[in-house]
Design brief:
This protein is an alpha/beta fold. The chain folds into 4 domains: 15-91, no CATH class; 96-407, Rossmann fold, CATH 3.40.50.2000; 418-695, Rossmann fold; 744-857, Distorted Sandwich (Coagulation Factor XIII, Chain A, domain 1), CATH 2.70.50.60. Helix 22 links the parallel strand 15 (500-505) and strand 16. The protein is globular, with a radius of gyration of 29 Å. The mean pLDDT is 95.
């Protein structure tokens, strides 16, 4: 029966408990140990049953409990203390951001992401990308950065996982009740909902906007599940990464185009648009439309304005991970933009193609994002290098090392991921500012002052909690599968709080090689069942519902444990989420990671483990490649490349067994007379001291701010002046440049020695100074339009220059129609060395010289 009317009923709170309502609706509770302690104290069982959701708690809690707590002076004092902490946090005027930017600066950074992992009570994330996005927002809040998040609100979110009796992953999709979650609908002053309408072929799709308060940062989530839409359109925001290609493009139109419209509807005017992966790249198209239709700019002018305020972070180390749409899909869903922007079909499709001459090529969201970004980055140093190689074709003629894709290595939010007891230990010995301290801060030396016994006891408690939690989860898993009484009893006896524990938890994609450790079953079983040095492994993770090879890996793990009768030593925790992550990174001794290098763009779970003192045992990929992997863990191999996958698996699995048998496990069990593993504890302290500050989002978001947010915001302000006059002038200059670039003629190149005599010999001495003069006929261009560079580098066996370095030359005089440029150089290396000459565009308003993607080599 349909209701005649629908009401949103708020929980009743006694007046003295009214601050709980404010505390419940700000995700500050997800990283404040005091706030979590408050909600746990209110009703411990309900706190766990609701997946740590204080809003749902307030709706379910017994009224008698509330009345009792309203008279409990201890609880009221604790509530007041937490409420004051939140208030002080939100109103702090002296934030890091305020110390960096001039007074009166009107910055606003909009962060677009398809998923956000903020708390386990908000299941709208699938894995690392979402967790990274959530941690990014939390760190931005801590730093006081004026950032807003933009995403989609999924009715079913990502699937919940369970395994059948054979170990095959099954999926269920519980419905999210947004009214029972820490979020609120955006409304106008008259109480009506703020709505937007996004154009799709033949119709408009309506969306409302929910706000999630992440400390100081608002996250705006679009929701299409409203009666005004058809059933199909309601389901646009149904599942994360669900459906077919048509649903995917529907979602990405809503995220990018709808996200821009939502910010406008809310009166928010970003100075920087940050695309976290290519899912939101359609925001560029909508911004171009606004600039062309409403501000009457040409496409070239609008492109310059849009690009001047956008940045793009790629998380994809392989071409197969990029969203690609066939040309006919773009025609159907975005064809109306062709005429609006004044572009032909092929000109529009070229915006998302690396090879613009290939008219059958799909439309790449990553290429679209790169084409309209002034700052592009990978998420680790190694991933930056991989990305320069992947996308280098967009900069024809530019050496791969100079492709303007940099890197900002990921981090994790310390207050979210460090065990609560361990945070208390850090607060006592390092001071309360440890989570906000740079790697160079002397504070980190104080880790050495932490008593070994205290650190070890806290780790032992965390491991005990992990074992207890795992047993309970295994029992529930077995109970749901209809296990026998003996099987149920066995789950309660699995694992040991005293045994060496390995953790492996992540998305079950095949390249992550979850079963590499199972390569030699007899050898692994011997390690697990060693009576002197027992070991155990905890697995967790989800495979995408359509990834059958990934599901097969999970099944193999389950079957392995049963076949070799090590179910008490090798277990799989179902339904991996943020809560399971937190338990595991705090409780394991070693975090295992076995991806195929270089396919792990960054990885962040190992960072979380390191912050808790756990050691990493990992392939040298992603973040681990730039960590101190000898003092804070162990590398698997030395970053070798293999052509034979089977051979690689054999070599690297054997390396893991060797390390475990001969080094890692014996070290773990090596104890002194006081029963403390001093050498292991020393390594735990190394992990905390060296990795916690370096791989934190506090450092990461500062890097984004200093390298991208601040300079791009200033760049956009400059392009915006006087009705976009600088952008118009730059677009006009670029048009002139493109028209005459290839008319230039590179003439005589004169190389003189220190005496001014021409160098005629091919033999030079190292460090011998050389004077170089280049004669260039610029034709319709001016000397100030170009940068002329002499380029030197070693010559390899193919005759190509490698590891080259450019030196800018200076314009010295005009000889008729010849422009003369001068430069100096010397060779510091012996052997075969080369010298070349090249010309790049130059303009004071270009963000970088390769932005125009023109280059001439002599």
């Amino acid at each position: 029966m349909k209701p005649l009317r629908v009401f949103t009923v708020k929980p009743y709170l006694p007046k003295s408990l009214e601050p709980l309502r404010t505390l419940a609706y700000n995700l500050y509770f997800s990283w404040s140990t005091d706030a979590k302690s408050l909600w746990r104290r209110l009703d411990p069982e309900l706190w766990e049953q609701t997946s740590h959701n204080p809003v749902q708690m307030l709706g379910l809690i017994r009224q008698e409990t509330l009345e009792e707590m309203s008279q409990n002076q201890g609880f009221l004092a604790q509530m007041e203390r937490v409420y004051n902490q939140l208030t002080s946090y939100l109103q702090e005027p002296n934030t890091w951001y305020r110390k960096q930017r001039p007074q009166g600066t009107q910055d606003c950074f909009a962060y677009f992401s398809a998923e956000f992992g903020l708390a386990d009570c908000l299941p709208i994330y699938s894995g690392g990308l979402g967790i990274l996005a959530g941690d990014h927002l939390k760190a931005a809040s801590d730093l006081g950065i004026p950032l807003v998040g933009v995403g989609l609100l999924y009715q079913k979110g990502y699937f919940r996982q369970y395994l059948n009796a054979e170990g095959w992953q099954q999926e269920r999709y519980p419905i999210n009740d947004f009214y029972q979650m820490p979020m609120t609908l955006e409304r106008r002053e008259d109480g009506s909902e703020v709505r937007i309408q996004v154009d799709y072929p033949g119709r408009q799709v309506h969306a409302r906007i929910w706000r999630v308060d992440v400390g100081r940062v608002p996250l705006y989530l679009l929701d299409t599940n409203i009666p005004e839409n058809s059933q199909y359109d309601q389901d646009i925001c149904d599942e994360l990464y669900g459906g077919d290609l048509d649903l995917r493009i529907h979602q990405e139109i809503m995220l990018g185009i709808g996200g821009v419209q939502a910010l406008r509807a809310l009166g928010i005017q970003p100075t920087v648009y940050h695309m976290n992966e290519g899912h939101s790249a359609f925001l560029s198209i909508e911004r171009l439309r606004i600039l062309v239709q409403e501000h009457h700019l040409t496409f070239a002018e609008a492109s310059q304005v849009a690009k001047s305020s956008q940045i793009f972070t790629t998380h994809t180390p392989v071409p197969a991970g990029i969203d690609l749409f066939p040309p006919d899909k773009i025609d159907y869903y975005l064809g109306r933009y062709y005429g609006i922007l004044g572009l032909s079909r092929e000109q529009f499709l070229a915006l998302g193609r690396e090879n613009t001459g290939d008219f059958s090529a799909p439309f790449s969201m990553a290429v679209l994002a790169i084409n309209f970004a002034s700052f592009v980055n990978g998420v680790s140093k190694l991933h930056g290098a991989v990305s320069r190689s992947m996308f280098g074709g967009l900069w024809q003629g530019l050496p791969t090392s100079e492709v303007p894709i940099t890197s900002v290595t990921n981090g994790v939010h310390a207050r979210t991921w460090v065990d609560e007891d361990l945070q208390g230990l850090y607060d006592r010995y390092l001071g309360p500012s440890w989570s906000e301290s740079a790697p160079s801060d002397p504070l980190w030396k104080q880790v050495d002052t932490i008593p070994d016994g205290e650190l070890w006891r806290i780790h032992e408690r965390a491991k005990t909690r992990l074992v207890t939690f795992t047993r309970q989860r295994l029992y529930q898993q077995a109970l749901k599968r209809g296990a026998s009484a003996a099987e149920l009893q066995a789950t309660l006896e699995a694992l040991s709080p005293d045994a060496f524990t390995i953790g492996f938890a992540r998305r079950f994609a095949t390249y992550k090689r979850a079963t590499l450790l199972l390569k030699n079953p007899e050898r692994l079983v011997k390690i697990l069942t060693n009576s002197t040095f027992p070991a155990q492994i905890i697995f967790a993770g989800k495979a995408h519902p359509k990834d059958h090879p990934g599901k097969e890996l999970i099944r193999q793990i389950i079957q392995f444990a049963r076949h070799y009768q090590v179910t008490d030593r090798l277990v799989f925790i179902e339904d991996y989420d943020m809560h399971v992550t937190g338990m595991m990174v705090a409780g394991v001794d070693v975090w295992l990671n076995t991806p195929l290098r270089p396919r792990e763009a960054s990885g962040t779970s190992g960072m979380k483990a390191a912050m808790n003192g756990s050691q990493n045992l990992s392939i040298l990929d992603g973040w681990w490649d730039e960590a101190d992997y000898h003092r804070t863990g162990w590398p698997i191999g030395q970053g070798e490349d293999y052509n034979d996958r089977a051979y690689q698996d054999e070599i690297e699995s054997n390396a893991i067994y060797e390390l475990l048998e001969k080094e890692i496990i014996p070290l773990f069990y090596r104890q002194g007379k006081d029963n403390l593993p001093r050498e292991w504890i020393r390594r735990m302290k190394n992990a905390i001291q060296l990795n916690a500050p370096l791989f934190s989002t506090w450092r990461m978001v500062q890097d984004y701010s200093e390298q991208a947010y601040f300079p791009i915001s200033d760049y956009y302000a400059r392009m915006n002046q006087d009705g976009y006059a600088p952008a118009k002038a730059l677009a006009q200059w670029q048009s002139h440049l493109f028209a005459h670039w290839y008319e230039m003629e590179l003439g005589e190149l004169r190389i003189l020695d220190e005496s001014g005599s021409p160098v005629t010999s091919a033999l030079l001495q190292a460090h011998q100074p050389l004077e170089v003069y280049a004669h260039v006929r610029l034709k319709h261009l001016r000397p100030e339009d170009v940068t002329v560079q002499v380029y030197q580098g070693s010559v390899d066996e193919t005759g190509e220059m490698v590891l080259g370095h450019p030196w800018n030359m200076t314009f010295v005089e005009q000889q008729g129609d010849v422009s003369v440029f001068h430069g100096q150089l010397h060779y510091s290396k012996s052997g075969q060395q080369g010298l070349g000459l090249r010309i790049l565009p130059h303009h004071p308003d270009l963000h970088h010289s390769s932005e125009v993607r023109l280059i001439r080599w002599a």
